[in-house]
Amino acid sequence: VVIGALAGGRRLLSDDVEMLKAVALMTARRIDALRVTHERCEQVQREQEISKLATEAQLKALRAQVNPHFLFNALTTIGYLIQTTPERALETLLKLTSLLRGVLRASEDFVTLGEELRLTVAYLDIERARFEDRLRVHINVPPELQRLHIPPLIIQPLVENAVKHGIAPARHGGEVEIAARVETSTGNSLTPAEKVLCLTVRDTGIGASELELARGRRDGIGLANVEQRLRCYCGAAATLKVVTAPGEGATVEIRMPILSPGTARAQVAAPPAEAESERRERISA
């Protein structure tokens, strides 16, 4: 069947028309697929940017959670020391200044373990001015580990928690120990073995029941703050475990991958893997 003519007098048959229709349809589908792919990429990029901004906003909010009760006690202690031992009052005030400066400066993607320890020691020095011999501190962190990178403000809140809820209510006070070590995780056929940084904060205070611990994780700032930080920086690769019982003190252990500066920045910039998976499923639906 002849239905048209091409230049030069060649007749255009129905088979030619069908072939052209098929080519046009394939081209249209390909263009549409490219458009959809481009839109998906733009949507994923926008959501990643939003996720990054949300993570940064969350970290700023966490940094703002300096315990007002601690500040009140520190200033009260300094006021008392001004009347009794002015030299120690000045020293404590400088420690408080150093602590607050460190908290406000903790906007980097990561800090070294040594920097986090110095911030924590500044806090403990202030508390020792208040508790005196009732608060004893032991730090067991090898110098070579103090160069490792960790998320900021993940040790000091745990130590503050130990002092506030463990040592302060104890009649004779107690001890707080900060320790760090590197272990090699057990690998398998799917996951190779890797080195893991283990951070431990232990106190010999009054301890807590399971109900009190659950309430503290839900309503308190210290543990929840640290858990959110670890989630923001390391995702599911980091864990926080608490072992405690009434009258037996408490031990908090963090296990996390050893971070390089680039790894830490990437973890903060990238959205969590679970959220990314959910987005892909939602886009493809």
Please characterize this protein's 3D structure:
- The protein is an alpha+beta fold and 285 residues long.
- The protein has two domains: 1-63; 65-275, Histidine kinase-like ATPase, C-terminal domain (Heat Shock Protein 90, 2-Layer Sandwich).
- It is 57% helix and 18% strand.
- The protein contains nine helices and nine strands.
- The protein has helices at 14-63, 68-84, 86-105, 113-131, 156-167, 210-219, 222-234, 261-269, 273-284; strands spanning 2-5, 11-13, 111-112, 135-140, 149-150, 174-184, 195-203, 239-244, 250-257.
- It has a five-stranded mixed sheet, with helices on one face. The protein has a two-stranded antiparallel ribbon with strand order 1-2. Strands 3-5 form a two-stranded antiparallel ribbon.
- Strand 8 (239-244) and strand 9 (250-257) form a beta hairpin.
- Helix 2 (68-84) crosses helix 4, helix 3 (86-105) runs antiparallel to helix 4 and helix 5 packs antiparallel against helix 7.
- It is elongated, with a radius of gyration of 29 Å.
